[in-house]
TrEMBL record:
It is a single-pass type I membrane protein. Residues 236-336, 351-442 form the Fibronectin type-III domain. Disulfide bonds join 13-23. The active site is at residue 675. The lineage of its organism: Eukaryota, Metazoa, Ecdysozoa, Arthropoda, Crustacea. Residues 837-901 form the SAM domain. It is an enzyme of class 2 (transferase). It comes from Hyalella azteca (Amphipod). Gene3D superfamilies: ephrin a2 ectodomain (2.60.40.1770), Galactose-binding domain-like (2.60.120.260), Immunoglobulins (2.60.40.10), Phosphorylase Kinase, domain 1 (3.30.200.20), Transcription Factor, Ets-1 (1.10.150.50), Transferase(Phosphotransferase) domain 1 (1.10.510.10), Tumor Necrosis Factor Receptor, subunit A, domain 2 (2.10.50.10). This is receptor protein-tyrosine kinase. Residues 550-811 form the Protein kinase domain.
Amino acid sequence: MMYVEIKFSMRDCSLFPGTALSCKETFSLLYYEFDAATKEPPFWESESYKLIDRIAADDGRFTNNNEVIINTEVRSIPVTKKGVYFALRDQGACISLLSIKVYYMTCPEITVSFAHFPTTPTGAKVTSIEQATGTCIEHARVEREPVYLCTADGQWSLLTGGCVCMPGYQANVETQTCDVCPPGQFKHGVGELECSGCPEHSAAPHSGSTECRCDTGYYRANHDPKDMPCTRPPGKPRNLTATVLDQSTVELSWLPPLLHGGRSDTVYRVVCDACGSQVAFVPPQVAEEGFNTTDVKVRGLNPVTAYRFQVIAENGVSDQAPHHSNVAVTVTTEAAGSFRALPSDNKGPSMVRNVRITSVKSTEISLAWQPPLDAASEVEMYEVQYYVKGHENNSSTILTTKEESSLAGLRHRTVYGFRVREKTVAGWGEYSAPVYKETGQLFNTGLNLELRFSKPAFMFSRNTDECNKKQPSDCDTLEYRNGEGLVVTYSKLHGVLENPPIVQTHTAGSMTAPLFTPAGHHRTYIDPHTYEDPNQAIREFAREIDASYITIEAIIGGGEFGDVCKGKLTLPGRPEMTVAIKTLKPGSSDKARVDFLTEASIMGQFEHPNVIFLQGVVTRSNPVMIITEYMENGSLDHFLRVNDGKFQVLQLVGMLRCIASGMQYLSEMNYVHRDLAARNVLVNAQLVCKIADFGLSREIESHTEAAYTTRGGKIPVRWTAPEAIAFRKFTSASDVWSLGIVMWEVMSYGERPYWNWSNQDVIKSIEKGYRLPAPMECPEAIYQLMLDCWQKERNHRPSFASIVHTLDNLIRTPEALAKVAQNRCQTALGLDSTDLTQLGSVEEWLSSLKMSRYLENFESAGLSDVQSVARLNQRDLTTLGITLVGHQKKILQSIQTLRTQLAVSMAEGFLV
């Protein structure tokens, strides 16, 4: 809308007598709209100009020259084009124009509701309303779009929407500004909230804080209000006690922690590393929630087994703390059959039926039975108790999920008693009436294998079949391409052993056996390759898992067949668990698929806490997967190298015990590993070692020599027994040799066996009778056990059962580990790729090691030739002033090599 203000004066027509007919007392205001500007105004055409109004002197006309009356008139017009011309038409009035003002109306600039509205012109008509959109002031944001209406009279009307101050800034309504919160105060939300002081155990050191940072050791959960004080995790539970209710049930109870960290959401979580999937908690333990009670029953445990339970107290901020408060207790379950405690209102299972003997051999009896007719629920497992008649108090037990069992390792011509009972969710049932049977006559002198039944544990495996997936040191192999087999003959034991074994043994024919013979459940490994349909072996030994239960989180490595991933397995009714997932490459051939799943059908047959356990497979969808447990610390060799020197000797011996126990189980399954090495042993967070990687493993042949003949392939020379290298025959005794090498790897913290020597140097040295030297600070008892494992005659090596027994004794009597082994020249190994005996001086020798900095130390001690250097030990190096452990180790390794080369040279008739 355009406005025109005219100031004028007009004479009254009465001042002009005689002209009344032509005198006028009005004039006309006209306008002309035009879209283009011109230098000259448009020509006057009455048709083109529009009349705005005929204006009269409303305020009056003056009638004499001494009194002038000034009139002011305002008129408005709607403007629709870019420009406008105004015209005034006088048709007989005596008028004087004093001023003409052309203008338009605006609504003024304004800040309201924390939004700024600029100067806004009014509309084109008197009835027009213009809508203006505001912009938020500094440190404010839109809550709802701010809109103000500008009316034709230049007034603002009907405000809607507006802005609010951002977090860290408080609203000042009077000044319409958002003021920053000062240090020590915060504002976490938007709007007209005021800045407030920090809650307890927190601070805001800077201006404009949206929340207060928690003090060190205090935390705020994601769901906690920002004005809530920071809190801490609870203290550890108190007075944890474990009560053995029966051989499979333990009750844990504890008191709440003294300090709850300022929170009221404390819950408890029970961790049992050795518990398998059959173990259940009452009340059930939900991983995301935990217990809110201070007692829990743990069911489904194995009899006569040590379990370590950790009770962890947690609250809403425990996931942010680096350490969780926990208390642990170790408890050993009772022997099966000793007693049982069932709730008074819970009727236990009834008795199994028709226990009968199905087979009798000289040292083995098989029996079968039928489940009870009135079992309250599904039978979970059976327990077979057996004993020599008249010695019921000295019984043994085994567990099985089948309705039959074979007991091996019995004494011939001896009467045994057998009783069976079942276990359901209600607990153990009553033992059946005893059945007695005498074993048969022993007709041959062959050694009976000892076989034991164990409960499963979850393991993580990695595929090491492909050589280029391993470290270069692991790929030193001899490869056989022909298919010829060699025969090796074993003679009777005679003479005195070069290194008498510390494991007590006795001989039977040409075999060496432990003096004790524990009996166990007889299970034998079945080679999946013997199945006409390989898929049948997979169905029999591996559990199918629905792919929807598996979530892949990250790729952690690669294998021969595809990626190895870390993920989660969530089975119905069970807590979520972390697993390792092997995947088969898309587009793999049918043969690759069978080879890939064959490993699963091998793993699926093993149930032992120190051997990898298979969770299951995915074969009905792509990609095909093998699911095993995720092992936090990875391979043993890498784990030891990363943690060089950090463990006590007893901890290292405990690792060896785990490995030996797993190998004992495999050997009792009639299974030869063939590739036992630290790289093929995995370690979990509790330092439990588990045997993995069965890429070179095969079943022992059933003939009397119990050996496996390879049909080609690569043999890891540094870990393989000499008879296996020479004749390509593998036995459990050759696995014992490999275990000795693994012992050396463990005690040397992952050092490479035989260092950088070539395969031929290793083979030549072993054939000459040389053995690896004792690692630094290695106990003499452990080194002697290594030498026992490295006996040249395989029949002179101890069995895995004997090794486990020896390690158990050493763990029970740690003082036996105090004496450190002293290296002897005759136990050093053979040839190095560099002949150190050809070095003319100590200076050259140190230079070859890049240790010339110690030349003055050697010269001051009068050591001038390599022969004198060969007599040095670790204590001598310390006396010389060489105190860095890494330098000592490097120099001692070279000294061991020097001793070996000097000894070999003299043995071959060369004097150096």
